[in-house]
Structure formats: C-alpha cells, structure tokens
C-alpha cells in the first residue's frame, strides 16, 4: 500500500479540498466553519469495515489484479481528481474507465511501446466488475452515513439575482483492501509476506487503496433527505451491476454491459438529482414569520442547544424575527442570557434558553442566508464539484 502513489495522493487531495472549502466559507460567512480534514473526518472506521468486506470477497472468490492494472486505476484516479470535481471519484468512473482502457486500448495501439509492461495480461474482468459493484455499494453506505453528518453551506446567486443558500453533500475517503497479485508482477519486500498458489500460479497479497468521493449540491431540500435519496439510487445501481457481474462469469459480454450501466447509471442519478434541485424552490429561504437556519457552527451555543440545519427561528427574547439583522438586534437586548422560540424539522414548537460565554460567536453560531461577507470578490459557482 505504501508503494502505491494513491496512499500519498489522498492526503494532498484532502488538504487541497479542505483549503478550497475554507476559502469559500470565509468569503461567504467571514469565518471558517469546519476544519481542514472535515470531508475525510468520521469515515475512518467505515472505510476499514468496507475494506475488510472487500478483502474477504476478493480473496474468497479469487479476484486477481496485476500490479500494472493497480497502477492504471491509480493513474486514472489522479487524473480525475486533478479536475477538482470530487463527484467524479466514483467507482463507476474510475473502474469503468479502467475497464474500457483494458478492453480497447491494447487492441488499438501497441501499449508496450509506451509502457514497460503489458497491462492486459491476466486481467480478471468479471472480478473487476464485481469490485466495481461492491465499491458502488460502499458509496451508497457512505451516503447513508451522511444523513446525520456535516454538510457544507455556501451562498450563491439565483436566476433572479438574489442570494440563496445551498449545501454541499460531500465526502472523501480511501478504502484499503487486499487483492491477489501474480508474483511475476510483484517484487517481494519481506520473507514473511504471505503467498498463495491457485491453479498452479503463485500470488502475493497486496494492500490496495481506492479513493472514493462524492459532492452533490443541495438547495431544494434538507441535506439528510437528499443523502437518503441518493443513497437509495446508488444502492439500486450497485445491485444491477452486481447481477450483471455474476452473469459475466457465464457470458463475458455482461461485464461490458455492467460497466456501461455503471457509468450511464451514475450519470443519470447525478443529472436527475441536479435538475430536480434546480427546478424546485429553495429550501433555505426564510419566511415573513421565521428565519431558517442555513448552518450551525460546531461547538457553538446553538450547537450545544441542539439546533440543526433547517430549523426555523420565530422569536428571540420575545421579539419576532424574519431577517438576520432583526435576529442579531434582538440578541443584544438580553445581556448574558437569551431565549429562543423555534420550530424544529418535525414542525414542533420548542422554547430554548441559554447563556453567553466569553468567546462565543456573536450570532450563537447560527448562519443564515444573507449577502456574502466578501461578495465583491466572490467567484459564484452553481455547478457540482
């Protein structure tokens, strides 16, 4: 694993992604909301569990990957991630493109005149497609786990020229799994490292990292609802690809069909979600009678009180609020204590109260839709990253 460039690339990717997000947070809200590694945070144990399940499958079924093939999908991962579009770091694209390269490039050109190895030798295409299906399953699990996790707010201009709020449903992780590699393409680095003999061929065990990520823009619904919908669609896609992968054991054309379904299915899921979000009214807009919470700063008074994204603030210290300015003004009238009347996501009215502490955010850690802090220099983007 430590010889694979992806192991080091993931750290570069996490840092660059985090720095880009923090820059946008400061432009929009004048403050850093989440730390640098937030996209990767809380995915460690999930990635380990998924990696163990993948390892059990690849070793149990006997899926083999040559070292050049591992380097190939590593190179494809790096090239895709350089674009900055985290949403392309899906197994559908990475392993899908890898499969197509293995299928067609060696037929069109003499790849050995360019690379010092022959990438098509001993490639288990059915196994590669099975791996694709399992990684799509891992992607759906990662989406399901995002329902009660952090998402990333930002401000953007609507088609009508007014500022609206939206969230990035975004995660970035690395899934390490063991795969069987023919010893002919593997240089042993330790005498104790295990080797296996299958059908007269000797294989070594290699720990392979796979970078997985997604980034969906949510503006027309609560991010947790969006994550649930996307997770279900991705789960169904993984089942379809898995069924075709099983069929490819008996009829090899099914592996090609599975790859096409994975790529086109991923594209359709993204397109349908994006169009639905663009055509529906904004979820984070306030009303004449309440102020809707766009984001809550971690470890802030609002966070300690259990206020969540999407909560409606109706009164502050007995005064009705419907604009950020009236909210901040009402907070200043109570000294060291404050009282809030809110409507939670279930539609229930709650009365909350608390005290100010030194160092607390001036707005209790609540962020709303307003003119961006640095709107004159803000590079507004409505696309998916």
Automatic annotation (TrEMBL):
Q: Which UniProt keywords apply?
A: Cell cycle, Cell division, Membrane, Transmembrane, Transmembrane helix
Q: Which Pfam family is one of those matched by this entry?
A: PDZ_6
Superkingdom in the source lineage: Bacteria
Keyword flag Heme: no
InterPro entries, per the entry: PDZ_6 (IPR041489), PDZ_sf (IPR036034)
Annotated PDZ domain residues: 293-334
Q: Which Gene3D superfamilies match?
A: 2.30.42.10
Q: Which residues are listed as membrane-spanning?
A: 6-22, 43-61, 67-86, 123-144, 235-265
Record keyword Cell division present? yes
Biological process terms in GO annotation: cell division
Q: What is this protein called?
A: Cell division topological determinant MinJ
Q: What is the lineage of its organism?
A: Bacteria, Bacillati, Bacillota, Bacilli, Bacillales
């Amino acid at each position: 694993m430590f010889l694979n460039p992806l192991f080091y690339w993931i750290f570069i990717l996490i840092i660059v992604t985090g720095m880009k997000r923090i820059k946008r947070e400061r432009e929009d809200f004048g403050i850093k909301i989440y730390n640098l590694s937030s996209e990767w945070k809380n995915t460690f144990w999930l990635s380990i569990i998924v990696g163990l399940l993948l390892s059990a499958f690849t070793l149990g079924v006997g899926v083999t990957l040559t070292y050049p093939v591992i380097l190939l999908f590593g190179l494809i991962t790096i090239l895709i991630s350089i674009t900055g579009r985290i949403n392309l770091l899906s197994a559908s694209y990475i392993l899908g493109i890898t499969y197509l390269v293995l299928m067609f490039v060696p037929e069109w050109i003499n790849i050995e005149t360019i690379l010092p190895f022959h990438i098509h030798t001993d490639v288990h295409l059915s196994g590669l497609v099975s791996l694709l299906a399992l990684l799509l399953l891992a992607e759906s699990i990662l989406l399901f786990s995002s329902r009660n996790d952090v998402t990333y707010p930002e401000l953007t201009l609507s088609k009508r020229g007014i500022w609206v709020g939206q969230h990035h449903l975004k995660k970035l992780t690395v899934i390490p799994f063991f795969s069987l590699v023919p010893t002919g393409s593997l240089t042993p680095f330790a005498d104790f490292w295990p080797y296996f003999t299958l059908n007269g061929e000797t294989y070594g065990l290699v720990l392979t990292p796979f970078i997985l990520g997604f980034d969906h823009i949510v503006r027309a619904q609560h991010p947790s609802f969006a994550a649930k919908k996307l997770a279900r669609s991705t789960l169904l896609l993984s089942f379809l690809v898995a069924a075709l992968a099983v069929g490819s054991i008996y009829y090899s054309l099914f592996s090609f069909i599975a790859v096409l379904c994975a790529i086109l299915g991923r594209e359709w899921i993204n397109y349908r979600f994006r169009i639905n979000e663009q055509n529906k009214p904004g979820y984070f807009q306030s009303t004449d009678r309440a102020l809707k919470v766009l984001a809550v700063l971690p470890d802030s008074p609002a966070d300690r009180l259990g206020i969540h994204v999407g909560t409606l603030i109706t009164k502050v210290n007995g005064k009705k609020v419907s604009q950020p300015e009236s909210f901040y003004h009402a907070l200043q009238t109570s000294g060291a204590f404050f009282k809030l009347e809110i409507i939670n996501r279930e539609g229930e009215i709650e009365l909350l109260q608390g005290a100010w502490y030194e160092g607390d955010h001036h707005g209790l850690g609540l962020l709303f839709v307003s003119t961006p802090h640095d709107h004159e220099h803000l590079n507004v983007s409505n696309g998916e990253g």
